[in-house]
């Protein structure tokens, strides 16, 4: 055992005693971390470009990957290598979350209304090889038929039919993914539809969206194979005045049609907290999907950090035993820093938030609350912030066979020198 490992073990033993004094079982918390399964979004590797054509780039949709850090993945082999590197530095259970634009098209131009399960077979095989479940997303952006600003809610029947067909195919692909991997594939539908300036006819677009969804979702799949999720949004770039798929719209749709509602914490008014919405939504829907991200002034999709937003999300799930009802996804794409490092920092931040939540003496806090002891509750919540969570986290990382503390930084740097530099002159 190295000196560093020795210190980590010693610190862990002391931390265990401190938490035990609060009535917290640290070993049980570490065991429970197995239930935290985070779906790793593939699109941080390549700035949401996709592999439909060699030079594919994110365009439209009201979202933007800013930055030009060298070394982005430009094909499936590079993307898989990057994901494998990131996974090797992240403890805990993961899944892969793929967008439809990342099919294995073998150089063939396959339009969105033509994609089939065969285009994703090599991804299914890769997930099987790496013991990962897989989730999937329709891609209603970066396409000429999305340029008008409306897809499933378009007033043009041809445009609408195209995107309904895309959604139908994505759901079929999802069911096949789930069937082969033996774990339900969550299919998430987010559309950019909306209006830059104040629209007059909001209602028709919403009625059309409902009609399109009803049509595409009329085909039923086994819930053991696929689950439908719909993702709401407040606004996008170029769709500042009205988003067709607003939260009210999709929450209503999800409740009525028994789908998951996807809550992206970049998609609400800045003072709204997604953590607060979890117990509200779960009174009315069976399950929900989260897109964990970090909005900075707008839905900027910065890399997740261990901030209050994420901590509240994790606490609400753990306090209420909701892990079985909430699917955990990530949604950030920062093109201004090392992209593998982005995955590692962001995913570990989410996992840290869950571990902190598991190290809380919740029953004791609830008792204080019920007894009306507001000062005592506040004091305990404050004191918990400086308990030795880091010692437990480092021990957990060692136990899971990944670098503890900041040690992963040098692994990422090494990968940048040895692999990413070969992709890009700026890094040589
Ligand atoms: C690429 C993602 O699917 C997309 O970011 C969507 O989930 C979203 O959050 C749009 O703002
Ligand atoms: Mn999202």
UniProtKB/TrEMBL annotation:
Annotated EC: 5.3.1.14
An annotated GO cellular component of this protein is: cytoplasm
Cofactor binding note from Swiss-Prot or TrEMBL: Binds 1 Mn(2+) ion per subunit.
Q: What reaction gets catalysed by this protein?
A: L-rhamnopyranose = L-rhamnulose
- Highest taxon listed in the record's lineage: Bacteria
- Where in or outside the cell? Cytoplasm
Q: Where are the transmembrane segments?
A: none
The record ties this protein, via Pfam families, to: RhaA
The pathway that the record names for this protein is: Carbohydrate degradation; L-rhamnose degradation; glycerone phosphate from L-rhamnose: step 1/3
Names of the cofactor(s): Mn(2+)
InterPro entries documented for this protein: L-rhamnose_isomerase, Rhamnose_isomerase, Xyl_isomerase-like_sf
UniProt KW keywords: Cytoplasm, Isomerase, Manganese, Metal-binding, Rhamnose metabolism
Question: What is the protein's major site of localization?
Answer: cytoplasm
Primary role: Catalyzes the interconversion of L-rhamnose and L-rhamnulose.
Q: What is this protein called?
A: L-rhamnose isomerase
Phylogenetic classification of the source organism: Bacteria, Pseudomonadati, Bacteroidota, Cytophagia, Cytophagales
């Amino acid at each position: 055992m190295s000196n560093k490992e020795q210190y980590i073990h010693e610190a862990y033993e002391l931390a265990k005693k401190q938490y035990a004094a609060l009535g917290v079982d640290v070993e049980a918390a570490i065991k429970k971390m197995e239930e935290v399964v985070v779906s790793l979004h593939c699109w941080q590797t390549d700035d949401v470009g996709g592999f439909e054509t060699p030079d594919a780039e994110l365009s439209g949709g009201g979202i933007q990957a800013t930055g030009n850090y060298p070394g982005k993945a430009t094909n499936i082999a590079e993307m898989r290598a990057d994901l494998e590197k990131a996974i090797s530095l992240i403890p805990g259970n993961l899944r892969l979350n793929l967008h439809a634009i990342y099919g294995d098209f073998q150089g063939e131009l396959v339009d969105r209304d033509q994609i089939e399960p065969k285009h994703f077979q090599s991804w299914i095989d890769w997930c099987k090889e790496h013991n990962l479940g897989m989730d999937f997303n329709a891609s209603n952006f970066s396409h000429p038929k999305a340029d008008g600003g409306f897809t499933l809610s378009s007033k043009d029947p041809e445009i609408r039919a195209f995107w309904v067909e895309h959604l139908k195919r994505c759901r079929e692909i999802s069911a096949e993914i789930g069937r082969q991997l033996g774990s339900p594939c969550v299919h998430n539908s987010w559309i950019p539809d909306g209006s830059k300036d104040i629209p007059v006819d909001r209602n028709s677009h919403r009625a059309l969206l409902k009609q399109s969804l009803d049509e595409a979702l009329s085909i039923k799949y086994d819930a053991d194979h696929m689950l439908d999720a719909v993702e709401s949004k407040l606004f996008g770039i170029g769709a500042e005045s009205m988003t067709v798929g607003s939260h009210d719209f999709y929450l209503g749709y999800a409740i009525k049609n028994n789908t998951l509602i996807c809550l992206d914490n970049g998609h609400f008014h800045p003072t709204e907290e997604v953590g607060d919405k979890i117990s509200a939504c779960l009174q009315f829907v069976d399950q929900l999907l989260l897109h964990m991200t970090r909005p900075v002034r707008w839905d900027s999709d910065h890399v997740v950090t261990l901030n209050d937003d994420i901590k509240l999300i994790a606490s609400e799930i753990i306090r209420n035993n909701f892990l079985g009802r909430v699917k955990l996804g990530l949604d950030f794409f920062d093109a201004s820093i090392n992209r593998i490092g982005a995955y590692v920092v962001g995913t570990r931040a989410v996992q840290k938030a869950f571990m902190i939540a598991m190290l809380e003496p919740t029953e004791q806090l609830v008792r204080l609350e019920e007894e009306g002891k507001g000062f005592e509750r506040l004091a305990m919540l404050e004191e918990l912030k400086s308990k030795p969570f880091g010692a437990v986290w480092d021990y957990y990382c060692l136990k899971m066979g990944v670098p503890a503390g900041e040690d992963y930084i040098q692994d990422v740097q090494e990968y940048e020198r040895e692999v990413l530099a070969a992709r890009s002159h700026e890094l040589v």
